[in-house]
Amino acid sequence: MLSDALLPDPGGSRAKGLRLELPSDRLLKFITVGLPLFLVSLAFAQEFSAGSQISCFSPTNFTGKQSAYVDMACWDSLVHHGLDTEGHAVTKSLWALKVFPYSLLVVAVLMYLPYLLWRYAATPALHSDLLFIIDELDKSYNRSVRLVQHMRKVQQASAEPERFWEEYERARQERYFEFPLLERYLTCKQRAHSLVFIYILRNLLLLVFLAATCLYLVFLHLNIFFQDEFNCSIKTGLLQAEPHIPPLIPCKLVFFSIFQLISLSVGGIYVLLIPVVIYNALQLCQWDKGLLSVYEMLPAFDLLSRKMLTCPVNDLNVILLFLRANISKLTSFSRLNAVSALREATTNKEDIDTVSNGRAPEMKPGVEAMGKASRDSLGSA
């Protein structure tokens, strides 16, 4: 049974399937970058298929070519001529409507920048950390199984039950069961802050870009997106002295409602995404102990939980989040989790015991050299 519990060597490389983005971050990237690109593509497709974006009401004596010229000139200038409350002539530029689809392209590029920051500044180091920790956790599980195999053989060959448990307790007190490489590596990551700094910076940049986009769309709605009609003047240049050309020509924006719908869609969804970004950043304010708590059934892993009493804003907490996202690569977790579930479901928890929690009732004493033998078995594993 113990031999069946040993993990086989991984057949392929673990590096191929590692997820270096959290599911929530991947969803944010897909929406924040993909939504404006999708809506802009629809706007451009409709513009190319329908033709002119503007319709001006030229005088009846204008020919078809003159009317087409009026539409083109007013779309190029896109300036509203009106009167203020005191009757003075004022002008108002509507150029923001003309560049609105292109501004959404800029928004998509800005939303992609935090992803590029994470990919090139943090992903290489995170990839190495995950590979090492996943490999060492599985090896620690195998070492523990081999340790139990050795203890079982010693127990079966021993004729002094009390002596076996005395040596077992002494081995625990002298910390023969520790795995110092993995433990020290995780402790070192608890004192590092490069990954957590980049992750917070990524979310902070994304939050700033989301807020700036929403403010930009609010500005457009308050100043421009309530004016689908405007008065255009074409009396410039050679046409300035022509008496048959009226001073102002009324025009209407054809796809004004579509621009309004696009801006409301982008702004509304971006506002809903702001709490998601804040939640992603706040995940680092508490420890994710659920994953490593399962490994406390192995020898000396209770030391890890005791060392997690410091500030959780460090690289180790970020690595734990990504270990959770790559739990399918951690083969030993499913087996230990099953044992943990059996322990919780069993009325008499002593029926299912591990080497970290004390004596198993079915195990009998061993030999005087149990401490040294345990240490040697760990080293050989």
Automatic annotation (TrEMBL):
Pfam families: Innexin. Keywords: Cell membrane, Endoplasmic reticulum, Glycoprotein, Ion channel, Ion transport, Membrane, Transmembrane, Transmembrane helix, Transport. Signal peptide: none annotated. InterPro entries: Innexin, Pannexin. The chain crosses the membrane at residues 99-118, 196-219, 253-279. Glycans are attached at N61. It is a multi-pass membrane protein. GO terms for biological process: cell-cell signaling; monoatomic cation transport; monoatomic ion transmembrane transport; positive regulation of interleukin-1 production. One of its GO terms (cellular component) is plasma membrane. GO terms for molecular function: wide pore channel activity. Structural component of the gap junctions and the hemichannels. This is Pannexin.
